[in-house]
Recover the amino acids of this structure.
């Protein structure tokens, strides 16, 4: 058997074959390193980050009445989340719109969502936490309440268990107090108080029930 020869006619020994195999392997490794997409990976990574920033654009929450321009409530909001809006006291009762849009580009994410704003009253005395009070005829009690909203004047009523309402006082402060001397004409029974907006009669608050009793002395 004749020994193997190279293309140039030189005889290939086992040592030469090993050297050639090692050289070929090194060249293949170099080619693989050169073909590795380092720059492509960086570009792809940068694109992914930019895309993520685009999808996570910061939002602006706005409100408006039906006849005025849009006003900001909060800015820099995330795509998903919640925001507690404390409605300013000067805002009058009525129908308003709330919407979300992107801060950049002003792309609307939601149409105007309708919100009804109403004033609110709250009784301080008699306390809502205390039920079944017993007040004697001809005794005097301080009635106290608070208003949340744009109410300017309030009215006070006494409501009997049968639904009959009797005016007690009018032109009271929206947040204030009033001394009630229970008249001898008030029959013994169950009652509760109502504080009501002088203009918007639908805005009112009712106290807890209490009983009026005749004097035991």
């Amino acid at each position: 058997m004749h020994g193997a020869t190279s293309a140039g006619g030189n005889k290939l020994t086992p040592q030469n074959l090993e050297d050639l195999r090692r050289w070929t392997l090194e060249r293949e490794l170099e080619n693989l390193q050169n073909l590795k997409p380092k720059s492509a990976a960086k570009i792809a990574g940068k694109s992914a980050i930019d895309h993520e920033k685009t999808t996570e654009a910061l939002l602006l929450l706005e409100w408006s009445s039906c006849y005025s321009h849009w006003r900001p409530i909060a800015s820099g909001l995330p795509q998903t989340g919640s925001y507690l809006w404390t409605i300013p006291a000067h805002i009058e009762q009525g129908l308003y719109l709330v919407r979300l849009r992107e801060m950049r580009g002003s792309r609307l994410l939601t149409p105007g969502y309708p919100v009804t704003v109403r004033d609110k009253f709250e009784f301080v005395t008699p306390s809502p936490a205390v039920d079944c009070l017993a007040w004697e005829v001809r005794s005097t009690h301080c009635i106290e309440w608070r208003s949340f909203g744009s109410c300017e004047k309030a009215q006070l009523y006494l409501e009997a268990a049968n639904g009959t309402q009797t005016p007690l006082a009018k032109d009271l402060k929206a947040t204030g107090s009033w001394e009630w001397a229970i008249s001898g004409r008030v029959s013994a029974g169950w009652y509760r108080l109502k504080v009501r907006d002088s203009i918007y009669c639908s805005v009112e608050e009712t106290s807890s029930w209490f009983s009026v009793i005749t004097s035991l002395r």
In short: Residues 57 and 105 are 10 Å apart (CA to CA). The first helix runs from residue 14 to 35. Confidence is low (pLDDT under 50) at residues 36-54.
